[in-house]
Design a protein that fits this description.
- The complex is a heterodimer of chains A (307) and B (353).
- Chain A is built from 14 helices and 4 strands.
- Helices cover 59% and strands 7% of the residues of chain A.
- With 307 residues, chain A is mainly alpha-helical.
- The radius of gyration of chain B is 30 Å and the shape is elongated.
- The chains are: A mainly alpha (307), B mainly alpha (353).
- Chains A and B meet through strand 2, helix 4, helix 6, helix 8 and helix 9 of A and helix 2, helix 3, helix 4, helix 9 and helix 12 of B.
Chain lengths: 307, 353
Amino acid sequence: MSRSSSNPAKIRERLAKRQRTLVTPEGVALPLTIASRSARAGALLLDFTILSVTTTVLTLLLIWIASGTVVETELTELPGSTEFLFVVWSLMWFIAWNGYFIFFEMGPRGATPGKRAVGIRVASRAGDRLTPEAVVARNLLRDVELFLPLVFLLTAPSGEAGLAGWAAMLWFLVFLLFPFFNKDAMRAGDLIAGTWVLEVPKTRLDHAISTGGAAAHGSSQLTGAAYRFGDEELAVYGEYELQTLERVLRDGRPEAIEAVAETICRKIGWNPGSGDERAFLEAFYAQLRAKLESDMRFGKRKVDKFA
Amino acid sequence: MKAPSLNIFKRKQEMATAPDIEAATLRSDRFRLQRENEWRRLEEILDRLESGRLRKLSDDDVLALPALYRMAASSLAVARETSLDASTLGYLETLVQRAWFQVYGPRQGLTSWMRKFFGGQLSQSIREIWLDICVALFVMIMGTITGWILVSRNVEWYYSLVPTQFTDTRVPGASREILLESLKVEDSAQGMSAFAAQLFSNNAGVAILAFALGFAFGIPSLMLLVHNMAVLGAMMWLYASVGLHWEFAAWLSVHGTTELFAILLAGAAGMHIGRKMAFPGKKSIMAAAAKGGQRAAQVMIGVVTMLIFAAVLEAFPRQLAGTEARAIIGVFMLLFWLAYFFGYGLGRKRPAS
């Protein structure tokens, strides 16, 4: 791993590219994350799969029903029942392919099943509510953005349409590739509807680390050893390292815990022996956090170990 | 503002397991444990709201939502300044964001939205794109005249203008009887509803494409309108050349006044977005595009509705009614749409959004 990719400042910078801030009427700044283009492409594929499977199943079902309704074989004209099924079938296609996205995005989650599965939703760019008009507007452009470019991509290289075909392909590619040319990853439909697509991370509230184990008692329940760290020992790390340590403790993978404990011991010059790494880390975490948080209350923040 | 009474939360607190607040050594963890129950209750309400099970929500919960949201927001503000627990901070950020979407997203039911939409909003939006409608109308009329003139000068143009599937028996030189036959009245409604459904799906697809192309292309999409209307002009010339102009006009107008009007609106709506982006006025281009796009989307919902009418008219009255009845229906529909779009709710002000 090169140094630039492991540098916390660089990592923060990379993540910040997709970060936007929304200030609620209460004055709380909420971080929003623009959904990645790959997540959106995945959601689209999922939605198309759902749509094709559903419409195919419905078509087969209607054919099956229709085959059951034919009682008189001598009829030269279409029987009324078959005609009715045909009406249902024609309308079904239109409603399914046009209504699916609109219906689900108007719902309380603002997302189609595909979007929901990858954890993204549609939201208004201006920070107000998502109106039905906006949802309709962003979904009306799908033909121009997706199907026509694909048609021209397939036909233009054959040379049948000539120069005009190439020109049309290039022009439609502008719409297909639109999301790659703006920092908010908006497609043309988003642009005219005033919407964007955001990540909706689903996080559960984890247990509080400082209520149990060595973090609470200051000593290991396994060996009874008490870990007390001095100020200069706690001063080597900052908030970034603290939160990395938190993640390691919550994941609870033994090999990661061992490796991290070893790194910290080397850094602060301790040699506590092996076998009690978790208690060591819990104690270190609690004391480092207590120190950083008390500094924080005095307006002193240490972002990472380089700060 | 008076803070809502806190005793509404009591019931939930008893149910949840009491966290060991004293056991927490860190001040920030104690802060978190004291408020955790309210956060969890908010999360539970949000889960139910998002899954659309609105009816299962008790009145207490609905009333508590705004208060719980504000509490979570203030918890987040405090936690940001006092806590370094990444898991709690991440959880609170997600929670407040989710709650914000629900609290500040007052949704209307479909029926109340429809009532507002057809009760004035649609007419308002159509009146707002009048300039684009005028341009599209002008282009369509010019297209028809062009088609007529081209064919009347040189009959060969007819074959290049009118697509082959149209030219069954209706070709230049066909006798009056054959052409009259093509406008005849069917004697039963057999197969007509299937025809209507097909027509609707097809035409609605075309209208949506016309809209999208209007945005994507601007001027070239006007050429598309010109070409389509030139076909119409050519066919008008054909029928007029054997003295059937009145019958043809009636045959066409029964659904044509609705369908052509709808396509006119679709083209105009697409053009409107392009025009708003080219000339945004005092707004930013993005804001102007969003405003124009939402207005155009409303027009498009109206267009699809009109096309449902058009398909029914095309399948039944056009095939089953005589010449006079066709003309009367066609003219009546035109007057109806004009009155509805340009006269309805004219005196009312658009509610501030």
